[in-house]
Amino acid sequence: MPDKTIGNPVSWSAQRLAGMGRGLGSAVEGIGSHEMTRPQVNSIGTGDIRAALRQGARDFAALRSDVIIGVALYPVIGFVLAVWAFNAGQVHLLFPLVAGFPLVGPVAAVGLYEMSRRREAGEPADWGAALAALTGRVLGPVLALSALLAVIFVVWLYAAHAIWAATLGPESYGGLLDFLRATLTTRDGWTMILAGTGVGFVFAGVVLCLALVSFPMLIDRPVGVPVALATSLAVVRRNPRAAATWGLVVAVSLLLGMIPLFAGLILVLPILGHATWHLYRRAVTWPDRGMASER
C-alpha cells in the first residue's frame, strides 16, 4: 500500500534542493568534453543544402501544429523590440536588431533540432518530448553556447551604436522616415551603411563558423562545447563555399521573414531549424552512425 504520509517540510525541501543540485551539477559537467571522439567531417555542396532544405520543409509539414505554437513567440519578441526602438528614440538600432537576429537564430531553433532528431529516430516529436530532452548533460552545453552567442549579439549592438555615433550621431530623429532620409541622402549616412555592413559581415562570419553544426551536435551527442565548436570550425574549413552559401540562405530567408512585421518567421524559422539538423547529419559522420544517438 502506498505511503500517503506527508513528509517533514524540512526533509522534503532538502530532497528537492538535492535534486536541483544534481541536475545543475550534471548540466555544468556536460559543458566539458568527456566524450572526445570526433566525427568524420564530410564534403558538402549546394546539392546537400537543397536536400537539407527539402527535408526541413518535410519536417515542418509533418510537425506543423506543434512547431507553429513553439515559434510564435519569436515574431512577438521581434515586434516588441521594434516598438521599443521607436519609443525609446533608438531608431538607429532598429536595423542592427533585425540584422543581428541571425546571430542568435541557432539558439531559437534548439527545440527544432531535437524534434527533427526524434522524428528521424521514430520517436515522439512534439514540443513536450523535445523540451523534456533538454535537461542535464544536454542543457548545460546548450546554455553555455547560447550565452556565447548572446554576448556576440550584445557586442554587435554596441558596435552598431558606435558606428552610428561616429557618423550620423548623436542627432535625434522625429521618426523612421527622418532617419532613413539622413541615412540615404548624406555622405555620413552612406559611411555608416558601409561600415556597419562590413562589421556586421565579420560578426555573421564568426557566428556561422561557431554555430554551423555545433548546436545540433550538442543535441545529438554528449560531446561538450569544445568538441562541438572544433567540429563546426572543421566543417567550415573543409567546406567554405557551402558554408558561405548556407549563411547567405539563412540571412536572406530570415530577412524576408521579418519584413511582414516579423510574421514570416513563423514559417521561415521552423524550416531553417529543421534543415540545419539535416545539414549537420550530412556534414559529419559518426563511427556508429545508424545506431541510436547517445543521450
Automatic annotation (TrEMBL):
Q: Which UniProt keywords apply?
A: Membrane, Transmembrane, Transmembrane helix
Regions crossing the membrane: 67-87, 93-113, 134-156, 192-219, 246-272
Q: Does the keyword Protease apply?
A: no
Top-level taxon in the UniProt lineage: Bacteria
**Family annotation (InterPro entries):** DUF2189
Question: Any idea what this protein is called?
Answer: DUF2189 domain-containing protein
Protein species of origin: Paracoccus angustae
